[in-house]
Amino acid sequence: MANLEVVMTAIKNEEHSIMRLERLPKALVDYSKVHHVGGGPYKGILINKQASDLEEVMGEEARLEFLAYLSEQDGHSDQIQDYWILKFWFQGNADGLTRKKTFTDYFQELMSPRNFPKNYIGFVKRALVLLKKYEQIRRVDFVVQKSEEADVDEELPPIKSFVTVYTPDSYTYQLVPEVQVSSKEFLAFKLKAGGDAHIALSAVYGDLERKTHEIVIGAEGNTKSMIREGSMGLVRTEALTYNVLHSNEFRFFWVSWAGGNIEVGRGAKYGQGRFLHWRVPEYKRFNVNCLAVSTGRASRGQWEFAELLDANFDLGKESKAARKEKAKMSLLWLAKRQRLIQVLEDAYPNSVNVSQLLQNCKIKQTDTIAAVVMLKDLEKRGLIKEMDKGVWMRVPRLTQDQSEQIEMVERMPILDRRDQPQVAIITAFYCEKLAVDAMIEDKKTYVRYKSEGYPRRQIGESQVYTLGRIGRVNVVSTKLSRIGSGQNAMISAENTTTRLLGTFSHVEHVLLVGVGGAVPHFSDFSQHVRLGDVVVSSPANDTQALYIQCTKVETMAEVSGYSYITRSFQCIDQTLQRAVQKLRQRCEAGNGENTFIAYIEEAKERLHSEESSFARPSIKSDKLFLTKPDGQKIQMEHPKPFGKEARLFREGQPYIRYGTVGAGRLVSRNDHMRREFAEMNGIKAYDAEYDAVLQSLEGNRNDSFLLIRGMADYVDGSNKDWQPYAALVAAAYMKALICNLR
Questions:
Q1: Which residues lie closer than 8 Å to 97 by C-beta, 6 or more apart?
Q2: What is the average pLDDT value for the chain, to the nearest integer?
Q3: Where do runs of H (alpha helix) occur along 472-629?
Q4: Report field, pTM of the whole predicted structure over 0.85
Q5: Quick one: CA torsion of 496, 501, 503, 505, rounded to 10 degrees?
Q6: Domains and CATH numbers, the chain
Q7: For a pLDDT cut of 90, what percent of the chain falls above it?
Q8: DSSP bridge pairs for 549
Q9: With helix as H, strand as E and coil as C, how does 108-129 read?
Q10: CA 117 to the chain's CA centroid
């Protein structure tokens, strides 16, 4: 900060006085205006001559308002009651909480009774010296107005703290952690925007899709307002609100979430002018812990939130280091809790004993008791179950209407001919199984449970089968256990598939439904596959291959390049491909798209209570990178649609793409090979290698299969953030396809 000076400039007129304190580079200081240069403890402080006006600057980022009583001359004159406004601007990229603490600490140190200045001059000096200390503050304006609101003897009104947030015209949410909402039930604010203003009330910081109420004010050209479930989620209520916002004028609004009701109104008085109301069902309620705001493409926005500042603000008796360590430990155990659930979900329908569970989660032996307590807590919440002493299994939750039946059995009951499934659905990730089952009606789940617990000599002893209907077709879904690797994992997948076809001998078609990694195109939207899209396996060339696995890569000595050794899988029965073409024609004609989207929304309703969030993640997280030959990664823009595609384009809505599905860690995780192998074979998506399942289908002479993959990343579908939503869109397409079989 050696090249910066703290400069004070003051103006005074009949209405108010303004004292501006700001940091300026020495090169920008106009020394012809300087009246006094500080020395000693005031070195680096310059006092300008009184000015007639101040340069206009962008609106403040925070401010404080309060009544003050100061003497003009060492206490010899009467006290003067003034209304003070402190406006703050900041430098650097600190978050909102840090900035709020900075200006709060500055104010409290400035007003501390222990060494409060005796007169106005002393107050100004103190303000300047403190600004040198608080380097994050770039500028402070002290605005002083004569007040006639109250007598000196009356109790002072509270100090008001104002936070200003500026949002760009890009539907980019900004969290506002400095506005505490966890202890409130309503919020009042003022807003300047041309339209399309969004407010997100969420349970978890940073998660705007799950457990979030989204309020949109001035949508669709400033004509309509609405309440949605999650960011860009399902609309729960809406109202016509013509010109409710103004781009050059602040307007007051209030939002309430008291008693399970989301309400929005115009004006500064809470409870009056209500124009939106949604009664939240009990099973959808949550504690509102954080606030985020944004404005869409229609306009930029300026938001202002007011709170009362506690003059006795205290961070508590704990040291900063102790609080930091406690927060660190809390986050560490939260991560371990998620890892415990993840391991059990991967193993499902197999169980895992405690020793292997702790080993997989990297929990020390000294923390065993804490881990067991956590397991018991998860059991109380209905997420897991202790099947035998020290042996745990992930268990599915019942749906809200409790219509689903889950039964542990030693052997499957014998089914009537009319109840035999014609379509089998195979999943691998737990979220895939949940998404598929959310599409099934009149379902009943059987878990054939073996009590040994993993690890055991043979993997895949337990099986899970969910029976029911999709449309008029009887279906059964199952899940592969993902515990184990290499040869053991292949044996497990083959065994599960063989048992499935052996148990249900009337299965005609097999669908592999789940997540995958998209193959993007950097210039052509019609060929571009991105996160949240669906890829349906279809032949891309004369080989008629639906699935191509790269088993080996060899370097060609004669030329610069690679030779790929592959194994491909085709279908003899074309029933599923005909259904795909039929559904594709309907969607391209605009007849099947709404049904597909409706299936997604209906399933979200059924999956709301699950541990995983099936809401679509923020579109900002869908980042596209190109790896150059030298290994440098550069971020690319997603290609834009043109012509008819541009007219049909819906931001945030999944697209259905058709092509071969590829596999092979050798190629899927190397950017150059990945693109080259995809171009050679018409591959639109990669997955995590399910050739063992397809080999089992071949061995059991099943001639009709299809892969449906929702895009979770640009590798092989292993990204956890997008997995649940990707699984959901794949399952929704599956339902639409099965409904087209008959």
A1: 177, 178
A2: 84
A3: 486-503, 575-588, 593-606
A4: no
A5: 180
A6: 4-157 (no CATH), 164-309 (2.60.120.200), 320-394 (1.10.10.10), 405-411+420-739 (3.40.50.1580)
A7: 36
A8: 567, 663
A9: HHHCCHHHCCCCHHHHHHHHHH
A10: 49
